[in-house]
């Protein structure tokens, strides 16, 4: 298992052994010894990157085994699929617009029948403490067997008279439910919001999104795990069965996500608006760039583009919260495209684009109380008459699209920072792999162990830092060192 402590320890032991071997190789002074030194640098870098990756992976559970890793990077071919085959958006009902207080459909009704049937909807919960429980559970409809974590507020009891709203959170890719509640500081933040009556008493549900360890599809792809049924049938039905005092109005059911999970949250709410009254798209995107929906035909991709789905005729209004940063162009583009596109009666769209910040847990942790505050306000004003005009608020309007963030030269994503890091790394490799050993050979001397270790260490550290900065620039993870240190802390 890639998340086991043993695997992490072994990876760091391997780094130490490879580093020790590299010190020995650096002591060779033959004519072609530079090839061995260069190989030692590369091998040590690879081992160090793997060890760092496994250390980060352990608390978050991004990938659990090598099979997950292979499935994550393997493309899903869906060229021959039509939009209808992956879940057709609901046909508008003949009645007038159905408002936020519409009852949840019978497809998610709690199971009260025979003990054998009900047993399918009873996960074997493990109490993690602090109001958190988790289970590896098989959805009776989707047949997916995945991890689900649930947090309940202080004093929760299935027999109390309180009615609880439901927040379902969808993680990104790679990712897993493991570590999400902790990274968001969700227990403290949500309990505080409940205590201050910003939001109603609510339970927080984190299901697995990347079914069978593969990239997220958010849809029922033929021959693949049925993600749409998992998210919009199995999870709601299980929650209503296990927690009998949850709210039964769609307005009180919010699905939200981050990154690829943000796209999934938006799509899930638009495919099944009869269940999800509100959706939060945090650092998301419009076109399905991750997963099977974007790897098929153009027709399939366009049909599953959020702005296109939102423009279709539907019987239910949508409450949609979109957030991101100016350093994350995808989040700015999806917000502007949706705000400027066709909306329908009773739709409520709110955008929040910050001038600074990256694509990371520090950003999303800070966004959690903001989306909760917005949702709480919508719940306090949910009696909207039929055919009311759409409401649009926030930082993005039809006339104003925030500029995408251009990092300053010496910021964490700046071109000067990247250039300097690459030059320093290349210089270290040149000096310690070629120049100094050549001088030692000319003097018929051999550098000491400390000097060899220092040289190898400088090469490895500067190369790993340069690689990390390049990846950070490409993926737009951290806009500042402060964000990086906050997440490490």
UniProtKB/TrEMBL annotation:
Pfam families in UniProt: Esterase (PF00756)
Matching InterPro entries: AB_hydrolase_fold, Esterase-like, Mycobacterial_A85_antigen
Record field: compositional bias (Polar residues): 104-114
Parts of the chain that traverse the membrane: 6-26, 38-56, 412-437, 449-471
Chain intervals with Basic and acidic residues compositional bias: 115-130
GO molecular function: acyltransferase activity, transferring groups other than amino-acyl groups
Region (Disordered): 78-139
Presence of keyword NADP: no
Keyword annotations: Membrane, Transmembrane, Transmembrane helix
Name this protein carries in UniProt: Esterase
Organism from which the protein derives: Nanchangia anserum
Lineage: Bacteria, Bacillati, Actinomycetota, Actinomycetes, Actinomycetales
